[in-house]
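Now for today's protein.

===
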Amino acid sequence: MEVRKVYKAGNSLVLAIPKKMLDDLNLREGTNMAVYLDRKNQCLIAKPLNLPDREIDPSFAARVEAFIDRYEEALRELAE
């Protein structure tokens, strides 16, 4: 067992996973994880989630980018 501290990063709380555990599970930055709360045992369960790579529709990406450009200031205020 390792004791780890939860810390704040932006508007989220983060729990860092030790490198050895990451390596043992072959987890890398960007790996999608399914996270479950086990209320009975008061613990979190996290499992790698294998999602198929999907192409993003270029027109959708352009609309999202235009939305962000238009509302960037409001989005930054909401993030605070």
The beta strands are 6-9, 12-15, 33-38, 43-48. The two ends are 35 Å apart (CA to CA). The mean pLDDT is 87. The longest strand covers residues 33-38.
